[in-house]
Amino acid sequence: MNLNILHETAVAMVAPGKGLLAADESTGTIKKRFDKIGVENTEANRQIYRDLLFTTAGFEQHTSGVILYEETLFQKSLAGQPFPQLLASKGVIPGIKVDEGAKPLPAGGPDETVTEGLDGLRERLQKYKAAGARFAKWRAVISIGAHTPTHTAIHVNAHALARYAALCQEAGIVPIVEPEVLMDADNTVETCERVTEWILSAVFEELFVQRVALEGMILKPNMVVSGIKCPVQAGVAEVAERTIKVLKRHVPAAVPGIAFLSGGQSDLLATAHLDAMNKIGGVPWKLTFSYGRALQAAAQKAWSGKNVDAGRKAHLHRSKMNGLAALGQWSEALEKAA
Ligand code: 13P
């Protein structure tokens, strides 16, 4: 393991004014997105759509890296260039989702999941590296309910995240460690804060136990928000303050950067929250985006399987707005001006 190379890559992933495009939807997940815009989920359409994203002129000014799904890592652009090479030629770092999804824990407890994909991962990482991937992603899912999360779910997910991260670093690949506390329930922002603290402290303990070098990883957490069905919604300033407080308590300064997931927030709120955190500042890590839905929803709608130019325009706009938010230089007026 060459920690200097891992560290350099991690630092480049959170370069000032840049963030990550999470375009790693599995075939099942992209179907849900395509269904909404009336596009059939075929390999050809997935190639056309991802080509649109990666050939958007100028997106590389705001995008440090792209998380790909395995199919896309081995797919070519419409012009015939392997996607990882196309990205690298623009200075955008190719990455790969390596987990195999959140699977139900054995019966006997509440409905919770553990993310699978460790078996054979060491060998898969070699294959992905040869194809050009320089970082990877593994997403653990923690849900909030009356009796969840349990200690079981917190522990097994933290353990698997650290196992994955250690294997990535052995292969010279920067792990994005993603423990996502879902925002789909009716919990208060205080509960989200408590659960986020719990999973983060468990994850960093496991990373220590499994000798993961913090300088060579990126954390991808949720923000501390109210559950979407909670009648009282925390405002932008409160979300920013609570998120920073929790991160300061649990994320060592050796971690180069924190790239948030959007998790179902609207495009504008995801941008506003990131901007508000960067306006507070005074933190030891870079704070940026690694958005899936909040970067792509507008582009998908504008494209709708037909209008490539409109799709690119929408993609570039959201990339630009989030790039500004990563610097704490975004404003709602800029959205309106565009
Ligand atoms: P969202 O921003 O849509 O939550 O997706 C990010 C991601 O990579 C989820 O694993």
Helix content: 40-55%
Instruction: Please state the structural category.
Output: alpha/beta
Tell me the total number of β-strands: 10
Strand order of the largest sheet: 1-2-3-6-7-8-9-10
Could you walk me through the main structural features you see in this protein, from its secondary elements to its overall organization?
- The chain is of the alpha/beta class and 338 residues long.
- The chain has a single domain (3-337), classed as Alpha-Beta Barrel (TIM Barrel), CATH 3.20.20.
- Helix content is 47%, strand content 15%.
- The chain contains 13 helices and 10 strands.
- The strands form 2 sheets. An 8-stranded parallel beta barrel has the order 1-2-3-6-7-8-9-10, surrounded by 7 helices.
- Strand 4 and strand 5 (113-115) form a beta hairpin.
- Helix 2 packs across helix 11 (293-303) and helix 10 runs parallel beside helix 12.
- The chain is globular and about 50 Å long.
- It binds 1,3-dihydroxyacetonephosphate.
- Residues 22, 139, 178, 261-263, 291-294 line the site of 1,3-dihydroxyacetonephosphate.
